[in-house]
Amino acid sequence: MSLEINALNKSFGEKHVLRDVSFQALKGSALGLLGRNGAGKTTTLRIIMDVFPSDSGSVTYEGKPLRTAGVSFGYLPEERGLYPKKKIGVQLTYLAMLRGMDRRAAVAATKKWLEKVELSEYFDKNLETLSKGNQQKVQLASALMNDPEIAILDEPFSGLDPVNAQLLKDIVRDLVKEGKIVLFSSHQMSYVEQFCENIAILHQGEIVLDGNLQQIKRSYPRDRVYIESLEPSEMLTAKVRDFAGSNGLSSAIIDITPRLSGCELKLASPQMRTSLMKTFAESPIQLERYEVLEPTLEEIFVEKAGEDA
Ligand SMILES: Nc1ncnc2c1ncn2[C@@H]1O[C@H](COP(=O)(O)OP(=O)(O)OP(=O)(O)O)[C@@H](O)[C@H]1O
Q1: Residue 173 CA, ligand 1 centroid: distance in Å
Q2: Which residues does the UniProt record annotate as the domain ABC transporter (predicted)?
């Protein structure tokens, strides 16, 4: 079961902001919609949420237009929409009732979600008395307290410290486990990498890459190796350079760069990664670690969306 975004186009005046944007968000998984500032992420999410229409294209769930598919949503918009001068408990309860809960269920959901985001003691406080990050967590609670099938979160990590970012990651993981569709926009690759099964990268209004993150990573050549010994990085690098030079490996190892506490080797071909491990095992260089590197999401993102037109 999936949410399908099909060939969306959108212009604001002369500016063509989305060009044939298509991707699919699957049930029971999180999809990270990635892009630089102005790439078109918020515009895409607003069209999905029907804040305004697209010029062409469609958004469907199970093949039906989303509006008529009878599926429930939670939306965390970029411009956060709660009342700063009202009590948190009162406004969350009110919102839950607006979305169809009776008062008793709405109060229970408010309490449950304030506990989940670790803000129970703020039930009777005005929203404006909370820090920016804590206000963000209240907004998140308001988006999710009606137990939506599809959660659409625009930049949910912005303003959260690492502990609260972890809390959000746990919440998203739970939603995924419960079989929900989670779609969120971000330019924070490290968070996306940790729990998104799927990604879609928008660049200047076009999808330049989308699909399963592991499969995308595997499609890159595995031609980089990271090694460590007990010696400092610079010393290991020098030793490996000498070893490669005196053992005819200079054309097989095309680059040797010190990294962290070891060094990274760029190989002439991915096939060499196993034979090289054997070569090291038989050499005087005592390695503590030999790891074939995959590209990070950040590297993939910079490759796909780093260039200006
Ligand atoms: N209502 C609007 N009127 C005119 N231009 C708009 C409007 N909304 C968005 N844009 C333009 O559309 C482009 C895409 O904006 P959008 O907010 O979707 O990007 P984004 O990827 O979410 O960026 P950010 O990461 O900075 O939030 C930008 O150039 C923006 O200026």
Answers
A1: 29
A2: 3-229
